[in-house]
């Protein structure tokens, strides 16, 4: 592939053909986030493009430069989804065939979108790199023209038009632009234009910890291929960056920020709060990086721009995002707490929590002397997590801070419980109570001390009513008194003692 020099890219960007299919996306202030980080944060809303991603810019610019003969034979590409939609839309506009090879891990939303645009979808491999190799095989067999998602001068130039728009839309000072990196096409185009026109603006690349091929390559001084890539941010899950994009990124990009999954989830939430729009993980990398960058460098009053490069999010992934956003924003702490298995200790522990919002509370009787409780508590700063743990320990409750424990966050929180030989005379109830500050603690305080709690499960799901599952050991001779207790309790309840699920897995 012939490499374009830096001045060539400026000319290519200025003359790129993108607006037959793309819009000039807005540059909008993120007011709430700006206040929180103490800097002027702007979002370049590429998630508002017709295919909800910037990728159609480069795809169309490349295809618009093909000959009639090449278009007549058709095009092929490999993509995790967004480039695929750009190629499919461009092919429909230019009237040519488009074969799209996508990893089997591609969200169904993107697969359906490509098919709806007329693309011929072929699913192959677990990552972009796997799909790419298969696409090369099909290209030779059918004599199709390959439209590379990032390692092509025309594609790079098409993406560079985003930087051209940014400088036109904001003529004042800009301190840094944060750009997500997968294969490197977007940052190569943006950096080529910025460094040619406004070289004082810092261009900062962003990758996830489990898909950081460009960061490793720049550090090594040569392209480094990853054995595996994380698939949460599927739009940037690239094992090997391009030759040309590596050359340009190494030469032009000022710095890099690496973010984790929790930070990305928190950034998705941040953008939603400011715009009421939901980004895909790759689209939120720039925002996550701004938050980390401002905290690390203690900068204030700067103008920082994040390119929100995509919004093709599978709806069922939102559950995971909401769950992990609180950790990324450092708003939830998790603990394993050991309390004596004796009357009054459960209530004493709850009193220590005080007015803090409880996000999760899981317990199952398993030992005659000690009880192990899995508890989540809302916090406003990360250092609060350790302070709470120390407070529990000062009052005699052995505590392990699990806030940064991946096993706890991903699995164990869902597995606390099971059968217990100690749960004699246990009856199981579902309670419903209004989800208001302090409501859970009021519920716990209302439970009668004469009957032992043998199971407790609660998770704040953000609904208007909280739902709690409670196992209570009630001797048969206390049935009448216990019923009177339930009647006096101000919370609706349903007994589930005879539920087959309970008997199969918990009894």
Overview of the molecule:
The protein folds into 3 domains: 6-54 and 153-327, Rossmann fold, CATH 3.40.50.1100; 55-146, Rossmann fold; 330-505, Biosynthetic Threonine Deaminase, Domain 3 (Biosynthetic Threonine Deaminase, domain 3). Strand 7 (176-180), helix 9 (185-197) and strand 8 form a beta-alpha-beta unit. The protein is of the alpha/beta class and 507 residues long. It has helices spanning 6-14, 31-37, 55-64, 68-73, 82-94, 108-116, 128-142, 153-169, 185-197, 213-220, 243-252, 261-275, 285-297, 318-328, 345-353, 383-394, 406-410, 439-446, 479-488, 500-505; strands at residues 27-29, 40-44, 75-78, 98-102, 120-123, 145-146, 176-180, 202-208, 255-259, 303-307, 332-340, 358-364, 370-378, 398-401, 426-434, 452-459, 465-473, 493-495.
CATH class of the largest domain: Alpha Beta
Please outline the major beta sheet: 8 strands, antiparallel
Main sheet: strand order: 14-11-13-12-16-17-15-18
What's the overall average pLDDT, rounded? 89
* Proper CATH architecture of the largest domain: 3-Layer(aba) Sandwich
Distance between the termini: 67 Å
Helical residue percent band: 40-55%
CATH T-level fold name of the largest domain: Rossmann fold
| Overall geometric form | elongated
Rg estimate, integer Å: 27 Å
Number of strands: 18
Query: How many structural units, i.e. domains?
Result: 3
In DSSP terms, counting alpha (H) and pi (I) runs of 4 or more, how many helices? 20
| Unreliable stretches covering 5 or more consecutive residues | 1-5
User: How much strand content do the residues show?
Assistant: 15-25%
The chain-level structural class is: alpha/beta
């Amino acid at each position: 592939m012939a490499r374009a020099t830096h001045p060539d890219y400026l000319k290519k960007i200025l003359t790129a053909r993108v607006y037959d299919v793309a819009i000039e996306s807005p540059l909008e202030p993120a007011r709430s986030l700006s206040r929180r980080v103490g800097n002027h944060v702007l979002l370049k809303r590429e998630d508002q493009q017709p295919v909800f991603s910037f990728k159609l810019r480069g795809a169309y610019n490349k295809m618009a430069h093909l000959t009639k003969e090449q278009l007549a034979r058709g095009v092929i590409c490999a993509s995790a989804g967004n480039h695929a939609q750009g190629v499919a839309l461009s092919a429909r506009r230019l009237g040519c065939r488009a074969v799209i090879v996508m990893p089997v891990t591609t969200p169904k939303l993107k697969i359906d979108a490509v098919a709806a645009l007329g693309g011929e979808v072929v699913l192959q491999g677990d990552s972009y790199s796997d799909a790419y190799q298969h696409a090369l095989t099909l290209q030779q067999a059918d004599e199709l023209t390959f439209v590379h998602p990032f390692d092509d001068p025309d594609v790079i130039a098409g993406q560079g038009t985003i930087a051209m728009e940014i400088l036109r839309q904001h003529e004042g000072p800009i301190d840094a632009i944060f750009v997500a990196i997968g294969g490197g096409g977007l940052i190569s185009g943006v950096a080529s234009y910025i460094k040619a026109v406004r070289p004082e603006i810092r261009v900062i690349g962003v990758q996830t910890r489990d898909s950081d091929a460009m960061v490793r390559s720049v550090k090594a001084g040569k392209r480094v291929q990853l054995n595996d890539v994380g698939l949460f941010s599927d739009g940037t899950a690239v094992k090997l960056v391009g030759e040309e994009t590596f050359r340009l990124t190494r030469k032009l990009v000022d710095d890099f920020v690496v973010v984790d999954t929790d930070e990305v989830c928190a950034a998705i939430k941040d953008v939603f709060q400011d715009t009421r729009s939901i980004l895909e993980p790759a689209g939120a990398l720039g925002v996550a990086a701004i938050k980390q960058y401002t905290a690390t460098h203690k900068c204030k009053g700067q103008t920082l721009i994040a390119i929100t490069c995509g919004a093709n999010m599978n709806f069922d992934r939102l559950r995971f995002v909401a769950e992990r956003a609180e950790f990324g924003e450092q708003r939830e702490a998790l603990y394993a707490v050991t309390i004596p298995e004796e009357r009054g200790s459960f209530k004493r522990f709850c009193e220590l929590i005080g007015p803090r919002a409880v996000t999760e509370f899981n317990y199952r009787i398993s030992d005659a002397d000690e009880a192990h409780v899995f508890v989540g508590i809302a916090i406003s700063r990360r250092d609060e997590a350790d302070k709470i743990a120390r407070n529990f320990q000062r009052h005699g409750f052995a505590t392990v801070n699990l806030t940064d424990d991946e096993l706890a966050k991903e699995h164990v929180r869902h597995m606390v419980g099971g059968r217990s030989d100690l749960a004699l005379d246990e009856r199981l109830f579902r309670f419903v109570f209004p989800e208001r500050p302090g409501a859970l603690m009021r519920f716990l305080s209302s439970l009668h001390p004469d009957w032992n709690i043998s199971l407790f499960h609660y998770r704040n799901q953000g609904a208007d009513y909280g739902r709690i599952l409670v196992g209570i050991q009630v001797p048969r001779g206390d049935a009448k008194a216990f019923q009177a207790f339930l009647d006096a309790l101000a919370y609706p309840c349903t007994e589930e003692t005879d539920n087959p699920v309970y008997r199969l897995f918990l009894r």
